Amino acid sequence: MKLTHHLIALALCLVIPTGSLMAKRYKLTSPDGHNVVCVDIKGGRAYYSVWRDGKTVLAPSRLGLIAQGGYDLSENFRVAGVETASVDSVWHQVWGENKDIRENYRELSLHLRARRADLTLRFRAFADGIGFRYEVAAQGTDSLFITRELTEFCLSEDARAWSIPADANTYELLYRDLPVSKTQTANTPITMRTPSGVYLSIHEAALYDYPEMTLERTDSLRLEARLAPWPDGLLAREPARFNTPWRTVQLADRAVGLINSSLILNLNPACALEDTSWIRPKKYVGVWWGMHVGIWSWVMGDRHGATTERAMEYIDFAARNGIDAILAEGWNKGWEGWGGNQEFSFTEAQADFDLQKVCQYGKEKGVMFIGHHETGGNIPSYERQMDAGMKLLQDMGSHDLKTGYAGGFKGGFSHHGQYGVRHYQRVVEVAAKHRLTIDAHEPIKDTGIRRTWPNMMTREGARGMEWNGWSAGNPPSHHVMLPFTRLLSGPMDYTPGTFDLLLESSKHSPDFKRWNDQDKGNARANTTLCKQLANWVILYSPLQMASDMIENYEAHPCFQFFRDFDPDCEHSEALDGEPGEFIVVVREAKGRFFLGASTNEESRNLTVKLDFLKPGQTYRAIIYADAPDADWQTNPQAYKITEQQVQATDSLNIHLAPGGGQAITFVPVVRM
Ligand code: NOJ
Ligand code: CA
User: Fold this and answer.
1) pLDDT tens digits along 23-64
2) β-pair type (325-328, 282-287)
3) Measured between alpha carbons, how far is 276 from 184 in angstroms, rounded to an integer?
4) Is residue 588 within a helix (H) or strand (E), and if so which, with residue range?
5) Is 179 exposed, middle or buried (CB count within 10 Å of its CB: 0-12, 13-18, 19+)?
6) Which atom of ligand 1 is nearest to the CA of 404?
7) Is 210 helix (H, G, I), strand (E, B) or coil?
8) Which residues form the pocket of ligand 1, taking CB atoms under 6 Å from any ligand atom?
9) Is the model's pTM score more than 0.85?
10) Whose CA is nearest to atom 1 of ligand 1?
11) Is 327 exposed, middle or buried (0-12, 13-18, 19+ CB in 10 A)?
């Protein structure tokens, strides 16, 4: 569907007499009429509630902020004015699950007077959910030190909820399936299904210069915002006038509706970069898995992974297989101290890695070098060097940089507090200056800033493939949980593609050395082979890695799926699924379609209608399916590749083994 650009902005000013402490209700309805927000000013306090199709989703929930010095924006509110507006437009992004996005909402701005400050509560209602933020203007000061945010999300019924616990330093945790009444703390996105059948997910959008929000249950069904503090206990240091991030509630009738929503992106400002021509989705391979499975090292020595020769071998493999780029972790100096008081250099290569030669070779072969800056969490050291380190990459012709923060921040700062948020943003902006995109590991959570900073390509921010290299690994349900939780915030560099699922080639290698405390000898990828292929489609990332060592791909028939796969899609749709159970996703890229379906521990048979294909067009469907006797535990490598011709009027029966998946490439048949 192509919509023409159309923008209406009507401002309707309705001034209510100040001084009135009578209860007042203001109502906002989404353009499609399904979602309703009511804002109540009652006894001088502000509350909001949310309905979908007449059913209460959030009961009256408190709003407000408190800052030091008597700046109390939580009570004694007087209504000074109210404005409404509405927008219906289409914007275009350089890359994304969908390149054209409709932004269609109604807005309500409630101007309140509080003690020594004005506060605007700005609400937006969309067909796929609601967002609101605080806009503060304090008098008689030039800065505000926030000590409390009172925002509540009070569920009207005990919903089933999928989340990870709140943690100011890591998101690499396993998901829980718990009722809200048993969820003590949660990071966002937290996804829920109410007994009345509404799916919702609470998160935030446009997180800048403010700590991340997590949730704590303070009463039976009341979740309250918690902000990761500075070491001195303050939550946020702000100027006298500032806006908080948007607090968001995505709403849908089906679980996949949350995935197909653009609410988070729509609550972010337009692109800040004038020239985006250098930003391009890519497929990559790299010197990476060998370290995680313990046969190579990041440090220099006999087992060093990132040698000039190996990087050139990876470039040759990439060139032969139509892969855009390579990564080589451990290319730089400083790895000896990783995990301690590390000081990495971002400008000096290790003696056996010739950066110039590798980049030049890549240029000749049409393969780009992806830089790697593991900081170990040493922010002051990285901030001193990042400009020079990024300039070096720019001079080498590179356009992409993976960063890492595996380690605690010095000085008691947490990863997810305002200090961290500021740092991660500085990196994005300095990178943009050097025409580099960012793939951040151990990042701050995604809140849709890619709309404004499209060089913020992808990030980790959940348990990725690495956990399968040196721990009991990610359970089969994890990959069908991520799309309904973590990925609602934005793309994830999960790095799918382990073909040697049982890690046979590394476990029996004379070079193997246990390097991680969590390695109990039972590491493996807990899926079937076809689920690894399906994850390239399902776990959306504009930089998509085939993460295994290249010898495990050479001559493997299933690697054809990655050769054909195009990470630069124009349109995506999650067709079916339930959190932690199964999912089916399709993406369209330059006339081809890629479908990924996968399941948790349970085997499943699904019927998928192909009505996403162009009507009247015949396609060659290349199907990579679990073999009938495949099973992630007992027979994970068994697969079957078949081909058939299909049209939009057809359906396909998809069999998924326990812990299995299926990947399909649809190529248009050109009739001569
Ligand atoms: C953790 C990252 O998630 C992983 O991808 C990387 O290999 C290591 N840190 C080392 O930087
Ligand atoms: Ca990590």
Assistant:
1) 899 999 999 999 999 999 999 999 999 999 999 999 999 999
2) parallel
3) 43
4) strand 582-589
5) middle
6) 11
7) coil
8) 288, 329, 374, 404, 406, 441, 460, 466
9) yes
10) 406
11) buried
Question: What is the CA(364)–ligand 2 centre distance, in A?
Answer: 32
> What is the whole-number distance in angstroms between the Cα of residue 292 and the centre of ligand 1?
9
What does the pLDDT average to over 237-263? 98
- Token pair 């990178």: residue: 431
Pairing verdict, β 152-155 and 55-63: antiparallel
CA 96 to ligand 2 center in whole angstroms: 23
What is the rounded (10 degree) CA torsion for 199, 204, 205, 208?
Answer: -170
Length of the chain equals 672
The atom number, within ligand 1, closest to the CA of 495 reads 5
Q: Regarding beta strands 543-545 and 282-287, do their DSSP bridges make them parallel or antiparallel, or are they unpaired?
A: parallel
The residues, ordered by sequence, that sit 6+ positions from 141 with a Cβ below 8 Å of its Cβ are 69, 71, 240
Residue 671 is given by DSSP the state P
Q: Whole-number mean pLDDT of the chain?
A: 96
Tell me the catalytic residues. Answer: 466
Through-space distance between the first and last CA atoms of the chain, rounded to whole angstroms: 29
Q: How far is the centre of ligand 2, averaged over its atoms, from the C-alpha of 493 (Å)?
A: 10
Beta strands in 70-198 (DSSP E): 71-73, 78-92, 100-114, 117-126, 129-138, 143-149, 152-155, 160-163, 176-179, 185-186, 190-193
CA angle (570 as vertex; 567, 575 as ends), nearest 5: 90
| Tokens 């607090």 sit on residue | 247
The residue type of 172 is: E
Q: pLDDT tens, 87-97?
A: 999 999 999 99
Residue among 346, 466, 493 whose CB has most ligand 1 atoms within 8 A, to mutate: 466
CB 331 within 8 A of CB 350: yes
Tell the residue nearest (CA) to atom 3 of ligand 1: 441
Tell me the CA–centroid distance for residue 494 and ligand 2, in Å: 9
Q: What domains can be seen in the chain, in order of their start residue?
A: 2-156+204-245 (2.70.98.10), 282-556 (3.20.20.70)
What CA–CA distance (Å, rounded) separates 423 from 380? 10
For the chain, give the percent of residues with pLDDT over 70: 97
Phi then psi dihedrals of residue 664, to 5 deg: -135, 135
DSSP annotation of 417 reads S
What single-letter amino acid sits at 580?
G
> Residue with the nearest Cα to atom 6 of ligand 1?
404
Q: How confident is the model at residue 410 (pLDDT cuts 50, 70, 90)?
A: very high
Give nearest CA residue, ligand 1 atom 7.
288
Residue 6 pLDDT exceeds 80:
no
Structure tokens at 414: 């947490």
Write the pLDDT tens digit of every residue in 588-638: 999 999 999 999 999 999 999 999 999 999 999 999 999 999 999 999 999
- What atom in ligand 1 is closest to the CA of residue 372? 11
Residue 283 confidence (pLDDT) above 90 = yes
Token pair 């939009």: residue = 648
